Amino acid sequence: MNLFEIQYRKSQKLLEYENYDALLKCIIDHTLDTEDLTFYRKTVDLLDRLDNKANAPKRREKLTAILGELYDCLSKKEIKERQKLLEVRNLVKEYPHSCFSLGPIDLELWEGEIVGLAGENGNGKTTLLRSLCLELEPTDGQIRYFFPYKDQYDLRTQLVYIPQRTDNWQGSLLDNLQFTASSYGIFGEENECLVQLIIARMGLREYRSLNWSGLSSGYKMRFELARMLLRKPKLLLIDEPLANLDILAQQTVLDDFKGIAQSPFRPLGIVLSSQQLYEVEKTSDKVIFLKNGKPKNTTDASENPEEEKLIIEFECACSQDRLQSILSTLGLEKIQQSGGTYIACFQGNTTQEDFLKIIAENQLPLSYFRNISHSTRRFFL
């Protein structure tokens, strides 16, 4: 079973459980994969019909029909082997008259992958992103791009960098996206259909007529992603996309990233920075943690002795003295408190199940726990 067939089965399950909003995203993704104006028209027509609540009783029938047509088309299409997009070796960026320097950094990125950058403010995440998109020239090291490009302009066209604070724009959201599409040689009916599909894919359909000031921070971010998709880039570099978003919006944006990156026929690579560690770690294939501009190895236990130990972050309405007494029987090495959260570090032979068992046996009021033994969260301790 190839990647498209796996995603198609997911679409069928969404239909079975009547999760129509998520299914529509999958249908739009499949439609974009066809790169066929005939299917563009059909899906845009479907979106228009579904806007009319009178068509709600026939919604399942219409979704089933178009899903079948998309399968017939895409099941015959070749899925190419994933290619390496980016290789960074010993990248260093220094600033004159500053004690801060970035690197050396090593990084590889393949089609369909998401790399997360973690670390506190001022530790080099933005510097690395700007170096990767050629806004900054490295002091030393090498950056290689493995996708074809004609010249430096063509290369930068395929590298999309979205900063944390984006510029404002004039006119409506729809007009701006149609202008963007025309800038990349997409005209006429294809322009209209493609923009409508991208708008719907990013959850912007009901905001088409709004201007910059009428959108929240979350929808401005979605607009930037929509504009990015029209460029059909190979590499997306995005700085703090989760800033100023509520929890639901954060998860929606991250799910969109994963869906966009892992297209069977139009895969791209994504590097994103964020301080929302848990969400980024769930989404990313690998994470780079930066401290004072230097990367910390998150997987090599020989470089990180803490990697061999069990580290639990938890919340419990007990005193630290009582917890110290109870957990010491598990080989507790240290326990510290930050606000209402405890961090407990155990010897290497202690397991997560041992921790939960002793919590239950002593009926401790545990309200939250997370194993951070392999999380970049431990670097913040």
What would your notes on this structure say?
The chain is of the alpha/beta class and about 375 residues long. The protein folds into three domains: about 5-75, no CATH class; about 85-295, P-loop containing nucleotide triphosphate hydrolases (Rossmann fold, 3-Layer(aba) Sandwich), CATH 3.40.50.300; about 305-380, Alpha-Beta Plaits. It is about 40% helix and about 20% strand. The chain has a six-stranded mixed β-sheet, with helices on both faces. Helix 10 (about 245-260) links the parallel strand 6 (about 235-240) and strand 7. Helix 1 (about 5-15) packs antiparallel against helix 2 (about 20-35) and helix 7 (about 175-185) packs across helix 8. The longest helix is centred in the N-terminal third of the chain and has 16 residues, at about 60-75. The protein is globular and about 70 Å long.
Q: What brief labels describe this structure?
A:
single chain, 381 residues, alpha/beta, Rossmann fold, Alpha-Beta Plaits, 3 domains, six-stranded mixed β-sheet, four-stranded antiparallel β-sheet, 13 helices, 40% helix
Topology:
Blueprint: H1 3-16, H2 20-34, H3 37-51, H4 59-74, E1 84-94, E2 101-110, E3 114-118, H5 125-132, E4 140-145, H6 152-157, E5 159-162, H7 173-183, H8 188-201, H9 217-231, E6 235-239, H10 247-261, E7 269-273, H11 277-283, E8 286-291, E9 294-296, E10 310-316, H12 320-327, E11 332-338, E12 341-346, H13 352-361, E13 366-371
Parallel strand pairs: 3-7, 3-8, 5-6, 6-7
Antiparallel strand pairs: 1-2, 1-4, 8-9, 10-12, 10-13, 11-12
